[in-house]
Amino acid sequence: MRKVILIAGIGLLLAGCGSESGTIDTEDGEVTYEVDRDGENAEYRMTNEDGDEVVINSGSDVAVSLPDGFSLYPGAQVITNTTVNQADGSGSMVVMRSDDTPDEMAAYYRRQAEGAGVEIQMEMSSNGSKLIGGEGPDGLTFSFNATPDPEGTTAQLVVGRDNN
Q1: CA distance linking residue 125 with residue 145, whole number of Å
Q2: What secondary structure does DSSP assign to 49-83, as a single string?
């Protein structure tokens, strides 16, 4: 998933550029990219010299697609969703808002993560915020962070799976 993060970072840097294509020289070689923006949504396609492709879709209208065993928090409003798909893995990052507390949301996602075989390896509470994360079978990674705000709770769910 390290590649996912690195290439996703490059893609997000391009987000402000509008629709375009080009190349970027990296220490691992040349990467070609295409950015297609449609309102608040964007699709980023990046291909390295070996033909490996990464597709990132991000925006408020991108469909939420989570691995088996995970679902959107009941009643939550999706603020933005980002999906990353590549040959060696895929993942989703959903930013959402709910009227429920960070503890209630974290308990919901803990049950889902543990049901999917995730071993919770990290848990932290600070100033009303809640963070949990861990790893599961077959390269499954999970983290959930929820913070109280004036409108309820803003939360970020990240779930990914390596195909290696």
Answers
A1: 10
A2: TT--EEEEEEETTSPP---TT--PPTTPEEEEEEE
pLDDT at 74 over 90: yes
pTM for the whole thing? 0.81
Check whether 22 has a pLDDT greater than 50: yes
Give the C-alpha separation, 118 to 135, whole Å: 5
**Does residue 54 sit in helix, strand or coil?**
strand
| pLDDT of 164 over the 80 cut | no
Tell me phi and psi for residue 85, to 5 degrees: -130, 130
Q: Look at residues 101, 8, 98, 102 and name the one whose alpha carbon lies nearest to residue 54.
A: 8
With contact defined as beta carbons under 8 Å apart, do 123 and 114 qualify?
Answer: no
List CB contacts of 31: < 8 A, sequence separation 6 or more.
7, 10, 23, 24, 25, 46, 47, 48
C-alpha 135/C-alpha 157 separation (Å) is 14
